[in-house]
Amino acid sequence: MSGAPLRVALLGCGTVGSAVLRLLAEQAGDITARVGRPVEVAGVAVRRPDRHPGVPAELLTTDAHALVTRDDVDLVVEVIGGIDPARELMLAAFSAGKSVVSANKALLADDGVALHAAAAEAGVDLYYEAAVAGAIPLLRPLRESLAGDQLTRVVGIVNGTTNYILSRMAETGAGFAEALAEATELGYAEADPTADVDGFDAAAKAAILASLAFHTPVTAADVHREGIAAVSATDVARAAEIGCTVKLLAICEKVEGERGASVAVRVHPAMIPTSHPLASVGGAFNAVFVEAEAAGQLMFYGQGAGGEPTASAVLGDLVAVARNRVAGVAGPGTTAYAGLPVAPMADTPTRYHVSLDVADVPGVLAQVAQEFAAHDVSISTVRQDGAGEAATLVIVTHRAPDSALSATISRLREMPAVRAVTSVLRVEGLA
Ligand SMILES: NC(=O)C1=CN([C@@H]2O[C@H](COP(=O)(O)OP(=O)(O)OC[C@H]3O[C@@H](n4cnc5c(N)ncnc54)[C@H](O)[C@@H]3O)[C@@H](O)[C@H]2O)C=CC1
Ligand SMILES: N[C@@H](CC=O)C(=O)O
Ligand code: NA
User: Fold this and answer.
1) Which helix (H) or strand (E) holds 251?
2) Residue 354 labeled ligand binder
3) Centroid of ligand 3 to alpha carbon of 370 (angstroms)
4) Which of 333, 377, 416, 419 has its CA 20 to 30 A from that of 25?
C-alpha cells in the first residue's frame, strides 16, 4: 500500500484502550486496505508503564501532552475518560491539527459545543461513536443518515451496567452488590461505578443524544437524573404483577407547548410492559428507539459496553477520520442552530405506578382517590389486595405533569390511613 503510515497516539490503555490496541494490530492489513494508507501506533500514554507488560516498552509514555503534540502523530484516540486532563489533551490535539476519536461521554456531555467549535476551527474531526451505546452505530446515523428528517423522540437503554444489574435482579434474584461486582469484573462499569448506578453515565449519553437529535446544545446538567440505587425488590415484584419489568430509561423528547417547542431530557427507572421491545433487552445490551417524522420508528440494538464492542466503535471512527485525513477533508460536524430551551422535569408529562399499604377501613379508597383528584391526576387503574390490617392499593395513573404526581405522593405519605408508600415508579409504554 502506497503512502506514509498515519500515526496514532493512544491515550489510555485500560479496558477499551487495550482492546483498541489489540484489534488495531490484528486487523492492520484490512485497515490499511480500507483507509488507503497504513495506520500504526506512534505511542501509548498510560499512568503506570509497569502495568502494561503486553505493550512494547518503546511505545509507552506517561507524558500524554507531549505525545499528542508530537510532529509524527496524525490522529489521537482518547480513552482515558473523565473531564481532566482529557479536555486539555483534546484541545491540544486540535491546535496541533490532529483529529480526535473519543469514547468519553462525560466530557462530550459537559463541553461538547466548545470542543466541536475547536475541532471545526482547526479543520479536523471529532468523532465519538463509542461514547453512546458502545458498539451500536447510533451517533453517525443521527448526525448523517437522519440529517434530512425531523426527530421527535429518542428513548432507550443506554447503560450496560445498570441493565446488567436490573436483569440479574429480575431473572435470578441476585443482590444489587453481587450484580454490580459482576458488571465491574466484566469491564462494563465506569472507573467509579457510581457514575453508572446513579445515572450520571446515562444522563451524559442522553445529553449527547438530545443535542444531536434536536440540533440544540444540551449538557448533562440539563438532564433530569435518577439512578437505580432506590429500585427495590418490591418495585421489581410489583412490576412483574402487572406484566412489566423495570429498566433504566433515557428519554429525549421534543415537546410542543404554548410557548413553542422545547426539549425534555430525563433518565430514570421505569416500569415497561414485558411485551415492549425494550423489556427483552438483557444483560449489558443497549437498545435505542428513534422516532422521526418521515422515517417513523427505528430501533438500534447491540452491545453497549465492554472492551471489544466499544473498541469496534472506536476503530470504526478511526478508519473514518483516517480516510478524511487521506482525502484532505474533515467530516460533518454537529449543528446546534435550533437552540431550543430545555423543559423542566416538573412540567414533563409522566405516568406513575404507586403501591400503598393502607388501613382497610371504609372510605380509605375514596380518601386516596381524592388526593389524586386534588392534584388533577387522573387514575387509570386501581387494584386492592388483601384485607383487614394489611390491605394494599396498587394505582396506575394517566399522564400528568411530573410535579403534580410527586406532590400527590408527598400528600399520600402524610395521610393517617396510608401506613406506607411501598413502591413508586414511573411507567412508560403502557397503553
Ligand atoms: N468500558 C466500557 O464498556 C466503555 C467505556 N467507555 C468510555 O471509554 C473510556 C475508557 O473507559 P475504560 O477503558 O473502561 O476505562 P479504564 O479505567 O479501564 O481505562 C482508562 C485508562 O486510562 C488511564 N489514564 C487515566 N488518566 C490518564 C492520564 N492522564 N494519562 C494516561 N493514562 C491515563 C487509566 O490508568 C486507565 O488505565 C471512558 O471515557 C469510558 O466512559 C465508553 C463505552 C464503553
Ligand atoms: N459504564 C458504561 C460503559 C459504556 O458506556 C455502561 O455500563 O454502559
Ligand atoms: Na455507539
Assistant:
1) strand 244-257
2) no
3) 47
4) 333
Q: Which domains does the chain have, with CATH numbers?
A: 6-134+307-327 (3.40.50.720), 149-303 (3.30.360.10), 345-427 (3.30.70.260)
Which phi and psi (to 5°) does residue 279 adopt? -65, -30
Q: Which positions ≥6 away from 184 have C-beta within 8 Å?
A: 161, 193
Q: Are strands 126-127 and 224-225 parallel, antiparallel or unpaired?
A: unpaired
Annotation-wise, does 386 bind a ligand?
no
Catalytic residue list: 205
What is the number of residues in the chain? 431
Report ipTM (2 d.p.): 0.99
Whether 310 is in the pocket of ligand 1, judged by its Cβ within 6 Å, is yes
**What does DSSP say about strands 285-292 and 244-257: parallel, antiparallel, or unpaired?**
unpaired
- The protein residues having their C-beta less than 5 angstroms from ligand 3 (an ion) are 129, 133, 136, 138, 313
- What is the Cα–Cα distance from 18 to 349, expressed in whole angstroms? 44
Question: Partners of 391 in the beta sheet?
Answer: 358
What is the CA 377 to chain-centroid distance, rounded?
Answer: 30
Nearest CA to ligand 1 atom 18: 14
> Is residue 129 lining ligand 2, measured as CB closer than 6 Å?
no
The answer on pLDDT for 69 being more than 70 is yes
Spatial distance between the Cα atoms of 353 and 372, rounded to a whole number of angstroms: 12
Distance of CA 180 to the CA centre of its chain: 17
The answer for residues whose C-beta is within 8 angstroms of residue 221's C-beta and 6 or more apart is none
pLDDT by residue (tens digit) across 302-322? 999 999 999 999 999 999 999
The sheet with strand 60-61 has its strands ordered as 60-61, 39-45, 6-11, 75-78, 99-102, 126-127
Q: Is 12 annotated as a binding residue?
A: yes
CA distance 64 to 46: 8
* 267 to 194, 207, 226, 233, 244: CA distances (angstroms): 15, 10, 6, 20, 18
**What is the helix (H) or strand (E) element at residue 22, kind and residue range?**
helix 15-26
Residue owning grid cell 477520520? 321
Local structure of residue 49 (DSSP, 8 states): G
